[in-house]
Specification:
alpha+beta; DUF2179 domain-containing protein; UPF0750_membrane; YitT; 4 strands; elongated; cell membrane; four-stranded antiparallel sheet; transmembrane helix
């Protein structure tokens, strides 16, 4: 229960960041970097009486219905919450803040900051095993009926939206939209990797029994012992392997310094760790 509450809090934080990026950077500058957001920005330009938030809400509901008919209800409560929460928040902002309000009207700054913030927001949402819906559903439909990879399907949909923006507004804005699509993907990947990065640690020490006990009892983590043999000395030694987050690794390093200054430690980055004590292998 506690885990689910934390995930919903993270999803809320994520879509709030995304909503602010859309409202104050992307939408007022007509930067349609793909997705339902980009489609809503284009339609809003053609039919100003419909706000970006309202259009996103309508399109997401339609896409959920179409997706349910075409591929079944494989969305999950978190994705529905994130999608409708984002659309609703932007609708609320549109109601009280003029659509023309922007923190900058410089297209390059708006693209960079808007995409950077939206990538952070989407990365947080994705990391909580949810998505903001929208063109993700179209990608899944393409995947089912023409067997196109979901990643490629998303890229095609976003590319089409950016080209449509170029035809609707100007080639320059269309190119900024394409730049936004590319930067958004990079930012999302970076955020997800950063949130899930742990330390993979190998320790060779004469005090591995104490280190093993410290990891299990003090850090509440597991570890594995291998029997090794020195190539030069021929002597046998236990090799300890464990995965810890950054804070836990610092504690372990300080502990090893206290009990065995001759210990040999190697540390590498583990960009994603799945299983007991970390992120679930099976998504909820």
């Amino acid at each position: 229960m506690k885990k689910h509450i934390k995930e919903y809090i993270m999803i809320t934080v994520g879509y709030i960041i995304l909503a602010l990026a859309i409202k104050f950077f992307l939408a007022p500058n007509k930067i349609a970097g793909g997705g339902v957001t980009g489609i809503a920005i284009i339609i809003n330009h053609l039919i100003p009486s419909f706000s970006v938030g309202s259009l996103m809400l309508i399109m997401n509901i339609i896409l959920f219905i179409v997706g349910f008919i075409a591929i079944g209800g494989k969305f999950g409560a978190k994705t529905i919450y994130a999608s409708l929460g984002l659309s609703g928040l932007i609708s609320l902002l549109d109601k009280y803040i003029s659509p023309e309000v922007a923190l900058t009207h410089d297209l390059l700054l708006a693209t960079l900051f808007g995409t950077f913030l939206s990538g952070i927001g989407m990365g947080i949402v994705f990391n909580a095993n949810a998505s903001t819906g929208g063109t993700d559903i179209l990608a899944k439909i393409l995947n089912k009926f023409i067997h196109l990879d979901i990643g490629k399907s998303l890229l095609i949909v976003d590319f089409v939206v950016a080209v449509a923006a170029g035809l609707t507004f100007s080639p320059e804005i269309g190119m900024y939209g394409l730049l936004s699509v590319i930067l958004n993907g990079i930012t999302i990947d970076t955020v997800i990797e950063g949130m899930n990065t742990c330390k993979a640690i190998i320790v060779m020490s004469s005090k591995n029994d104490l280190i093993n006990k410290y990891i299990i009892e003090e850090l509440d983590r597991g570890c594995t012992l291998f029997e090794g043999k020195g190539a030069y000395s021929g002597s046998k030694i236990d090799v300890l392997y464990t995965i810890l987050d950054r804070k836990e690794f610092i504690k372990l390093r300080n502990y090893i310094r206290e009990i065995d200054k001759k210990a040999f430690i190697t540390v590498s980055e583990a960009h994603e760790v799945l299983g007991e004590g970390f992120k679930d292998i099976v998504e909820d």
